[in-house]
Amino acid sequence: MGAEGFTPEEIRKKAGELGPWFQNIDLRGVKTAPEHFLGDYPNMKWKKFAHAVPEDLSGMSVLDIGCNAGFYSVEMKKRGAESVLGIDSDEDYLKQARFASSVLGYDVEFMRMSVYDVERLGRKFDLVLFMGVLYHLRHPLLALDLIYEHAASGLFVFQSMLRGDDGAEDIEDDYPFSESAVFHRPAFPKLHFIENSYSGDDTNWWLPNRSCVEALLRSSGFDILTNPEKEVFICRKGKRRWIGQ
After folding, report:
1. Residues facing 156 on adjacent strands
2. H or E stretch including 128?
3. What pLDDT does 5 receive?
4. pTM of the prediction?
5. How far apart are CA 112 and CA 93, in angstroms?
6. Label partner for 147 (CA 20 to 30 A): which of 67, 100, 138, 236?
7. What are phi and psi for residue 82, nearest 5 degrees?
8. What is d(CA 70, CA 88) in angstroms, rounded to the nearest whole number?
9. At 110, is the secondary structure helix, strand, or coil?
10. Which residues span the domain enclosing 162?
11. Among candidates 237, 207, 87, which has minimal Cα distance to 137?
12. How many CA atoms lie within 13 A of 136 on its CB side?
C-alpha cells in the first residue's frame, strides 16, 4: 500500500498497534512517540548534524545498522540514496520501520540481522550509519571491526551515548609498566561497564567517555573527519594501525 492509501485514522490506529515506539516519527501528521522523554527524538538530534552528511546521496548505497523504526533510513532516502538497507535484531522495530517508510512513500529495505552478521550481506556500502548501538553490545570493538572489514567502504556516521569526562586526552603510543597515574586522569579513555541496568534498560552494557569513543574509532581503522554534535562523529574508512590488520 502506497502513502496515498492510508487515511489519518488508519495511520493512527496502526501506529498504536505497533507501539510503543522509541523513535518519534511524523507519519503525515501522526506522531509515533509524542511524549518521548528526550523530546522530538531523534529529529532534534538529526537537525544538529544533518549539515555534516552529504545533502546529495545520489548513486550511493546506505546501510543503517540498528535502524530501529527507520528514521535515519528514511532521511537517507530523502537525500536521494540509490539504495538503503536498515538492519535491526528486533522484529518489532522492523515492523514499525516497514510501516513508517510505507506511509511516507519511501522504498527502503529492512532486514532482521545483528551487527555481528554483516558479513552475510556480501557487500559494502558507501555510507554506514551506526547510531546509538555501541553501548547496547556485549562486544563493541568486535562490532566496529566487522563493520570496517565487511560493511564500510567510505563514510561512517557514528553516535553513542557518552558518560564521564568530555575532555580530550593526548595518549602516548606506549607506557612503561610502572606507569599507573595516567589511568586516573579524568579524560583517559574509559569504557564504563554496566553489569545490571542503566536508565531502566538492561541492554545498556557500556558507557564510553568522549576520548574512549575517539580511540575506539581510530583503533578500528576509522579516521574522524568532524564531530558536529556532541555524540556524533563523521568518519571515513582509513587504515588500521594495529598489527592484526
Report:
1. 128, 235
2. strand 125-131
3. 76
4. 0.95
5. 10
6. 100
7. -65, -40
8. 10
9. strand
10. 3-237
11. 207
12. 18
198-217 pLDDT, tens digit each: 999 999 999 999 999 999 99
Residue 37 lies in a domain: yes
Q: What are phi and psi of 65, to 5 degrees?
A: -90, 125
Q: Could you give the dihedral angle defined by the CA atoms of residues 227, 90, 23 and 9, in that order, rounded to the nearest 10 degrees? A: 150
Task: Specify the pLDDT at position 243.
Answer: 56
Nearest to 84 by CA among 48, 136, 127: 127
**Burial readout 117-134 (b: 16 or more C-beta within 10 A, e: otherwise):** ebeeeeebbbbbbbbbbb
25, three cell numbers? 516519527
Cell triple for 22: 522509541
Q: Which of 28, 127, 26 is nearest to 81 (CA)?
A: 127
Cell 568522549 -> residue: 210
Q: Are the C-beta atoms of 68 and 88 separated by less than 8 Å?
A: yes
**CATH number for position 182:** 3.40.50.150
Would you say residue 84 lies in a domain? yes
Distance of CA 61 to the CA centre of its chain: 16
pLDDT of residue 240: 87
DSSP reduced 3-state for 11: helix
Residues 6+ apart with CB under 8 A from 242: 219
- Mean pLDDT over each residue of the chain, to the nearest integer: 95
Rounded CA separation 85/118 (Å): 12
> For the purposes of burial, counting CB atoms within 10 Å of the CB of 227, is it exposed (0-12), middle (13-18) or buried (19 or more)?
middle
Instruction: List the grid coordinates of 142.
Output: 568486535
Q: Identify whether 91 is part of a domain.
A: yes
Q: How many domains does the structure of the chain reveal?
A: 1
Contact of 189 with 209, CB cutoff 8 Å: yes
Q: How far apart are CA 203 and CA 133, in angstroms?
A: 10
Q: Which residues in the chain come in under a pLDDT of 70? A: 1-4, 242-245
Establish if 243 belongs to a structural domain: no
